[in-house]
Design goal:
Elements lengths: L2 E5 L4 H10 L4 E5 L15 E4 L13 H21 L4 E7 L8 H18 L4 E6 L1 E3 L6 H10 L4 E4 L2 E6 H12 L3 H11 L1 E4 H12 L7 E4 L23
Parallel strand pairs: 1-2, 1-3, 3-4, 4-5, 6-8, 7-10
Antiparallel strand pairs: 8-9
Helix pairs in contact: 1-5, 2-3, 4-7, 5-6
Length: about 240
């Protein structure tokens, strides 16, 4: 039975991946606040690296704090994986940087740059760009909007398209990569993406379930913040070294 290390196994994606993949593999867990050591990687076939510092409404993190976890921890994990000859590293990351650039998005871009550097050194790394991740019962940003309206809270819903993927589909995609079925994994990823207009979708649900709550939906506008780029239209990243 293959041994799989899941970092961030108690997070939104990690919990569902652990629940699904534990039927097929021996699962080892790691959280971002745990002490990292080489022992965690001994005999590991695949690392699914989910541990990350993510935006929270209750606290605003600095760029340094994001980089320490999202970039620094990634570098440590890839270094240990390389030394222990881990066969595969899967890094599910966010594609939100295409629509908004802030401290979190910047740290995830740096994470990808670090991963790509290790790929050049021969480490087998798969980066999965993820849209809005939802549980199989679609809890998440969509459910939170519905709950707000249900509880008579005036809620602004942007008139914009949103793309989602379920945690179950992410787990299935990871399993295909683990078993070496890369082409099937890519096809499954593309088929798993669901795109719809957020405002129209929410309004349809509320109209069906809580028709008297329609007055609590306020139509917003699409806000897309583009990154600052150089004259030759490239984004400059800070340099870094790999020990």
């Amino acid at each position: 039975m293959k041994k799989i290390l899941i970092t961030g196994s108690k997070g939104k994606i990690g919990k569902d991946l652990k629940e699904f993949l534990t039927h097929y593999y021996k699962i080892v867990e790691f959280e971002k606040n745990d002490k990292l050591s080489r022992d965690k990687f001994e005999g590991v076939h695949t690392v699914i690296h989910l541990a990350a510092l993510t935006p929270q409404t209750a606290k605003k993190f600095t760029l340094k704090e994001y980089l320490e976890i999202n970039a620094g921890l990634t570098k440590q994990i890839l270094s240990y994986a390389s030394k222990c000859r881990v066969k595969l590293i899967i890094i599910p990351t966010s594609w939100s940087w295409m629509f908004k650039v802030g401290n979190y998005q910047y740290s995830k871009l740096i994470q990808e740059k670090i991963a790509n550097k290790y790929k050049e050194l021969g480490l087998n790394i798969v980066i999965i760009e993820l849209p809005e991740v939802v549980h199989n019962n679609y809890k998440g940003v969509i459910q939170s909007i519905i709950e707000n309206i249900k509880n008579n809270r005036l809620t602004t819903v942007d008139v914009t398209n949103i793309t989602t993927i379920t945690t179950r589909n992410i787990a299935n995609i990871c399993r295909k990569f683990i078993e070496g079925n890369n082409k099937i994994a890519i096809v499954l990823y593309k088929k798993s993406l669901k795109t719809f207009n957020l405002y129209v979708y929410i309004k349809k649900i509320i109209k069906k379930r809580f028709p008297n709550k329609l007055k609590y939906i306020r139509k917003g506008q699409t806000k897309i913040i583009t990154p600052v780029i150089t004259k030759n239209k490239t984004i400059i990243f800070p340099d870094f070294e790999i020990e």
